[in-house]
Design a protein that fits this description.
Blueprint lengths: L1 H19 L7 H10 L7 H32 L17 H10 L11
Length: 114
């Protein structure tokens, strides 16, 4: 058990050093806004950076899943007479995003007037 604890402490120290050298894409003001909105009063910059990295990872995973849903949809509706796959632009639509978010338990739908 002592070895497990020292391994975990060493991994945590490595993570903190790595986080110090990395700047997340999500601005600090956005993280502060949402932390305050949820009632979390956090003065530690490392914790805020950890939240930013977790949010960035979630957004990246959702975007990657939406891309996969788009590729599956394009693969099933592809005609052999259309442009080659190199010339096609990928356009992620709301249906791709909805499918990806549904995988994470987030349900969104378009307003009724669309």
């Amino acid at each position: 058990k002592v070895e497990e604890k020292t391994d975990k402490e060493r991994e945590m120290a490595e993570l903190l050093v790595t986080m110090d050298n990395y700047s997340p894409i999500i601005p600090d003001a956005v993280i502060d806004y949402y932390l305050n909105k949820t009632g979390c009063d956090c003065d530690d910059a490392r914790v805020r950076k950890l939240f930013a990295l977790a949010g960035q990872k979630l957004i990246a995973d959702i975007a990657a899943d939406a891309l996969q849903f788009n590729k599956l949809k394009q693969g099933t509706s592809r005609n052999s007479a259309t442009k080659s796959s190199k010339d096609k632009k990928i356009i992620l639509g709301m249906d791709d995003l909805t499918s990806a978010l549904d995988e994470y338990g987030m349900n969104i739908k378009k307003p009724d007037y669309y």
